[in-house]
Amino acid sequence: MRVTRLCAWAVLPAFAGLAAFSWHCERVLFSPSEALYDQAADSESGGEAHATQRLSQGPDFYRADYGFENFNGDLLHIGYQAPRQAYDSYCAGFWYSRAVLDTLSGPDIDSYLASRGFKRLSATVISVDVPAMIRRSSGPLKSLSSAFDRIAVQKGYDSESLIGAVAAMVQTAIRFQIPPLEANGLRTGGILPPVMTFIRGWGNCDSKTGLLGAILANWPNMRMIGITPPGHYLMGVLRIPARGDVFVEYRGLQYVLVEPAGPAWLPPGTVGVDTLPELNAAAGFRIEPFFDES
């Protein structure tokens, strides 16, 4: 592997097959009152983007509205309303209980962790399974992807501008904040699942990458990989690199890097000032495809 420099609305549909959700898991993460947020994000490439978010909830729904600037200068707005029951059921499928884990053995441990969005790296190390979270979240976020499609049609965007619009929103309108490692007895792995990240309006690099990947996953022929230098997480999108783009080669194909963490406003192909040295460091980095390559 080598690294080289070369206004719409969506509604989360109800979906079946998930267990009932216990509300106490969420209380520490989202105040019942309406939340407002406004920021100007300095770009590490010399520009500046302005972004806003408005988060609210009613008896039967959660709602998130974001305003942000795309890399071509367009001011965009995206909104998403999630029925409370569907959203709560989605959230019930993530994070794990150490008490439950201690009662299991053998393959049951792996099955339980997989059902919560985690995997065992060794007998003693448990890790968040970001690709699995993305795969489980792309369906619930399909309507949000469709809302971005409508923006692309209205604005005449090509695929590059469309990907850039989603990336700009995740970077600048979603606040950077590190989740707690435990919430009311559940181990979070320091990550919010993608739909929760969008509804809550904040997340760390893992959470934001999961959100970006889950939205993009709804578009045909979208091939993506996760990139994990020490202490960081970003992603790559399969396309031919433009001059100056940062990309990695994986199994003979070139993936242009996207830096979802923010708040820096960085177009696809540009990474943070600290990321490139991490990628080229002797420690290296791990690559994990988000979907089966076949």
Folded structure, characterized:
The protein is an alpha+beta fold and 294 residues long. The chain has one domain (7-220). It has 10 helices and 18 strands.
Q: How much of the residues is beta strand, in percent?
A: 25-35%
* Total separate domains: 1
**Structural class of the helix and strand makeup?**
alpha+beta
Globally, the shape reads: globular
Could you state the oligomeric state of the chains shown? single chain
Helix content: 25-40%
Secondary-structure element string:
EEHEEEEHEHHEEHHHEEEHEHEEEEHE
Which residues sit in consecutive blocks of at least 5 with pLDDT less than 50? 1-6, 14-33
Taking strands numbered 1, 2, ... along the chain, how are they ordered across the largest sheet? 1-16-17-15-14-18
Beginning-to-end CA distance, first to last residue: 20 Å
How many helical stretches?
10
Strand segment count: 18
Rg (C-alpha, Å)? 18 Å
Topology:
Blueprint: E1 3-5, E2 8-11, H1 24-27, E3 35-42, E4 48-57, E5 61-69, E6 75-83, H2 84-91, E7 96-97, H3 98-101, H4 107-115, E8 118-120, E9 126-128, H5 130-137, H6 142-155, H7 159-173, E10 175-176, E11 182-183, E12 186-187, H8 194-200, E13 202-203, H9 205-216, E14 224-228, E15 234-238, E16 246-250, E17 253-258, H10 275-280, E18 286-289
Parallel strand pairs: 2-6, 10-13
Antiparallel strand pairs: 1-16, 3-4, 4-5, 5-6, 7-12, 8-9, 11-12, 14-15, 14-18, 15-17, 16-17
Helix pairs in contact: 5-9, 6-7, 7-9, 8-9
